[in-house]
Design goal:
CATH class of one domain in chain B: Alpha Beta
Helix content of chain A: over 70%
Strand order of the largest sheet of chain B: 5-4-1-2-10-9-3-8-7-6
CATH superfamily of one domain in chain B: P-loop containing nucleotide triphosphate hydrolases
Radius of gyration of chain B: 19 Å
Shape of chain A: globular
Number of helices of chain A: 12
Number of domains of chain A: 1
Order of helices and strands of chain B: HHEEEHEEHEHHHHEHEHEEHH
Bound molecules: adenosine-5'-diphosphate, magnesium ion
Oligomer: heterodimer
Distance between the termini of chain A: 37 Å
CATH topology of chain A: MetI-like fold
Distance between the termini of chain B: 50 Å
Strand content of chain A: under 5%
Radius of gyration of chain A: 22 Å
CATH class of chain A: Mainly Alpha
Amino acid sequence: MLKIASKTSGIIILTTLALVVIFLSIEAVPAIFASQDALRDQIPWFANSGDHNIWQYSIPLLFSTILAALLALLIAVPLSIAVALFLTYYVPKRISSVFGSLIDLLAAIPSVVYGLWAVAVLVPRLSGVFNFLSRNFGWIPLFHGPVAEPPRVLLTVSIVFAVMVIPIITALACEIYSQTPHLNTEAALALGATKWESIRLSVLPFGKSGIISASMLGLGRALGETMAVLMILSPGHSFSLSVLMSGQHQTIAGNIAANFPEAGSLGVSALITTGLVLFLLTFIINFLARKVVDLPLKTKRRKK
Amino acid sequence: MAEKESKKELKKKLKKKEDKKAAKREKKSLMKLQRMIVTNLDVYYGDFLAVQDVNMEIRPKAVTAIIGPSGCGKSTFLRTLNRMHEITPSASVQGSVQLEGVDLYSDDVDPVEVRRHIGYVFQRPNPFPHLSIQENILAGIRLNKQKLSKEEENELVISCLKNVNLYKEVKDKLNQPATSLSGGQQQRLCIARAIAVKPNVLLMDEPCSALDPISTRSIEDLIVSLKSQFTIVIVTHNMQQAQRISDWCAFFNVTATGEPGRLVELDKTDTIFNSPNKKATSDYINGRFG
Ligand SMILES: Nc1ncnc2c1ncn2[C@@H]1O[C@H](COP(=O)(O)OP(=O)(O)O)[C@@H](O)[C@H]1O
Ligand SMILES: [Mg+2]
């Protein structure tokens, strides 16, 4: 019975996915096969970009999307792990459960609210930090100046992404870490490990694959996030790594939201093509993540 | 005279900030010092008195078995011998446990350091699942931050594996995950991991209860062979096992649930099984229990 139910639901999910891909592809066809002149005539923002076809137009968007999401994870994952370990192992149960429900609340806040908070509170405060980064670490391409004023730049977007996904990853990480078998932690402690050493020896390895999955969930949210980008970023269209400069980047989701209301039929088709690219990206990332999670097991098997 | 010196050294070693180099130098002489003395020990879980007023001497280089009905506090008592009970937040202890005159519960003794000198083997085999067989054995050394050369490490791994009669079975797969071993092999690996740091005393809580008879037998042989090097305290619910492997035997009992467990009798294993002094002991030994 359960088997049949899970089988049918599996089939339903797969067909839905397939249908989405087919729908997107059909809608994308006009833009994919349109001539350069047609695209330039009918889509003003395409003309501005100076690109020759829709794929060429998609790549810088894809680049910015990945850059923003990766920077966000770079900030969010270590912080989330630290907070989760702290709550699970260093704080009395009663306090950690209060914080736990607070984190769950944070995870449920809609992104518009985060966007508003960022514009009102975060952006004005970041100038100083960004200038400091640029002055002292400007030799790193990431921190090339001049710093935009106000800093409506990709790094700000990444920081807001990070703030959005930290509650999600932290909540999952708490869940994972609290399930570490007692046997493993005690094995470490009995060998004369300090608390931190026992965490490194038992909790972190146990939670590794779970943390990767949690990060992928966070990454998914960051890749598809629209409102925060729209509200914060001053857009551009380039392959720039300089996340402190304005007018350099635009994400796929942000670009769709910004241009959709004014788009004609070919414009809509072009935007859908970029959406298809985003869809493929998430698909590939999930696939890779699964590979990474399985990796240790695979090598074990091969050695046998 | 030399013994007194060594005692001082042990005391120094158990102190929180030890001099690592001196510690390493003195490790050999410490090996001789393995007598433990427990005085007026009470163990609590919160307000619940689980074990009451234990007084016993654990002889060096001998196997002491702890037997008794389940729930009488055998595991609880064993865990207080290397301060493992402190991992349970509600657990607390009154009284003293001494290792060669050094009180393990005195304020300036670090529980982490105590556990490095008094090893522990658990009921269920628990190798680190993400580490290889070799890395499992070296885990304790790495925690101690002892720097060994590659050859020294390999030597240690091999000698520990030989010590637990596991070398022949695993010599071709030292780099495979420990979880690829059978339960009995995993338990022997755990013992190897515990003795790799050269502890003074080895505590074991029903190390065979999750194993098949053949693995049990090989671990029993192993325990007997290890007592020339270590003081061993083993909890077991299997009286034949206690009879087979121990030199000294301690019988714990509990009169009713909710009552504290007590040490009824400690004597030579022969005496406990053939002519015990207490009626409760002979009742338990002869199966007239509960
Ligand atoms: N973590 C714990 N918290 C509270 N009570 C415990 C805990 N562990 C054991 N006890 C209690 O202490 C008593 C002794 O338990 P234990 O030492 O496990 O007995 P044994 O190992 O002899 O079977 C039992 O009454 C048990 O319920
Ligand atoms: Mg027990």
